[in-house]
Structure prediction request, 364 residues.
Amino acid sequence: MAEIILKNVNKIYPNGAHAVYDFNLEIKDGEFIVLVGPSGCGKSTTLRMIAGLEGITSGDLYIDGERVNLLAPMDRDIAMVFQNYALYYNMSVYDNMGISLKLRHEQKNIIHKTVKDMAMRFDLTDYLNRLPSNLSGGQKQRVALGRAVVRNPKVFLMDEPLSNLDAKLREKTRSEIVKLQKELKTTTIYVTHDQVEAMTMADRIVVMNEGYIQQIATPFDLYNYPDNMFVAGFIGMPNINFIEGTVHDNYFHFDGMKVAIDEASIPKLKAYENKEVIMGIRPEYIEFGEKAYESFPDAILDLPMIHKEFLGDEYYVELKLPSQEITARISSEFHLTSQNLKVVFNMKKVHFFDKETTKRIVEE
Ligand code: ADP
Prediction:
């Protein structure tokens, strides 16, 4: 059990690279935090500073109220799972997973029960007698996870622990980690570049870019209330569409077309009359069908369809605006046969962003 606080934490590497800027975060006891962002944004550096594997250039790190900036990694009671597994190669899978209990002089039957349970959870039952060198990358990764969990530390730190698993196993292991974490209530910080992992696993997500925190929020809030264009663009598949245009007379004008701005958005766009803004609309809110047309009669567009992908329950459809392409997600209950597609923007679900600051426009 542990509460972790990072206050104005910075990391400047000896070569001058400023990897993390003023990182502020309070992690509650038992919380599952995911750090997400593109490669090089400072996620691993942050995690390694918490682990004690990397020095903190300035700022403070507290675990359970104690400032631990200078505490050695082994004194922090943290278990870390890396992309590369750091297993003991001369020990069987069984011994790798049980080693921490053995060192604590646990009874044999308890070690046995715990290791068996972990092996079940991570699909390793058939491999308990093998040496790590005879395992696939995915299996090694799961042994590393099992070993960390068996240790029962105050904090789990995980750096892309599922990166070597194929898609199916990744989903299964992902849910095993979350279920285990909920059972154990161990504070967990998890690093990934994969927004799906972040969205499905986290209590709260920290989105980072170029060393800066972009937003800290629950998956729901990140998706529905992104603070800026970076967050809106990073979360969601396929990506949100950004359309440049001008606000005028309660309409959003773009590419020689216009759509009526929803009543709820009108007050916050007051300061933007006749100004350029960027509208963000997620593919699922470019809708098709009579019901949708009725809801937003002033936001219907007839657009050429460039390409469609069938995914079983839905299509991803690329539509052509004069100056760009946009993507829609349309239920496959509809038969999309014509060259053009009549779609409607769900104007209750769009976001407007300030073109200069890239921040989402919210009411003052
Ligand atoms: P991420 O985990 O998000 O991919 P990292 O934390 O590994 O990002 O890296 C953040 C930035 O710090 C990158 O620009 C990277 O090149 C730089 N960096 C990482 N490790 C070192 C190091 N040991 N020395 C110098 N620069 C580093």
Observations:
- Residues 13, 15, 17, 19, 37, 39-45 surround adenosine-5'-diphosphate (CB under 6 Å).
- The chain has two domains: 4-234, 241-354.
